[in-house]
Amino acid sequence: MAEEKKVAPIGIWTTVKPFVNGGASGMLATCVIQPIDMIKVRIQLGQGSAASVTTTMFKNEGIGAFYKGLSAGLLRQATYTTARLGSFKLLTAKASEANDGKPLPLYQKALCGLTAGAIGACVGSPADLALIRMQADNTLPLAQRRNYTNAFHALYRISADEGVLALWKGCGPTVVRAMALNMGMLASYDQSAEYMRDNLGLGETSTVVGASAVSGFFAAACSLPFDFVKTQIQKMQPDAQGKYPYTGSLDCAMQTLKAGGPLKFYTGFPVYCVRIAPHVMMTWIFLNQITKFQKTIGL
Q1: pLDDT 10s digits, 107-122
Q2: Taking the CB of residue 248, how many other CB atoms lie within 10 A of it?
Q3: What is the pLDDT averaged over residues 34-48?
Q4: Keywords for this entry (predicted)?
Q5: Cβ(108)–Cβ(52) under 8 Å?
Q6: Domains of the chain, CATH where assigned
Q7: pLDDT at 188
Q8: CB atoms within 10 A of CB 200
Q9: CA 156 → CA 86, 130, 146, 253, distances in Å?
Q10: 64-73, 96-105, 193-202: which range is least confident on average?
Q11: Cβ-proximal residues to 273 (8 Å cutoff; 6+ apart), any chain
Q12: Could you give the CA distance from residue 134 to residue 142 in angstroms, rounded to a whole number?
């Protein structure tokens, strides 16, 4: 009986470990990358180039403006990244078992990434909505500002003023964007890590850094068009007649395509890539270091 009680916690930890490690690595990466994320959102809202947005924010709002929405960003990582990285680890493990332990082909990794992204986005959508609104708040006229004090206040206000289901406003484009991002991020990391380790003979550090860079690029390239549409949907305000500028994500995409052409979806791509790629890289690096540390203490 005593032996059975000792085995149970180990099994529980083995199951939850990928989720805990994924969330922790994402939160650490967010603490570093938050200022760049703020600049990216302001550019997508049409406030100018990276240099002008940075200068204006610092001059008019102070250094604290670059960290506005940090609580929502951390909450998002605690939900979204916890779910997506944990799910991806479990899905690939199950797929590997079905494949007799052999390395998974790229298409199976991509399918696992798509599924993990959808799961993570559904769990993290409320925090993502709070983050977008908090970051965009200072760009609105004074009368339209929501003045959320932190992520939990934002979630409470949205639920109280608009209903609980409003927390998932824009969930459709959020899920699609997350599926595209995670297909690019997760599948490319595993595939490039295998190639660098097995074919190029790189060491652990070089493999992690190199695969993280590849992962970051593909995550940005695959997801920016969906991120652009998602941001427009989540920040839209009704006019005086109560009518919203877009009826949905497809309508937003069509209006954007008609107004600015395909390249409009890549507005702010350099900053977006600079933001996404380092965040992805740091998430993988932090995850690798957390895993190594846990091994040294026997977890």
Answers
A1: 999 999 999 999 998 9
A2: 14
A3: 78
A4: Membrane, Mitochondrion, Mitochondrion inner membrane, Repeat, Transmembrane, Transmembrane helix, Transport
A5: no
A6: 19-296 (1.50.40.10)
A7: 92
A8: 11
A9: 27, 10, 12, 30
A10: 64-73
A11: 216, 217, 220, 221, 224
A12: 14
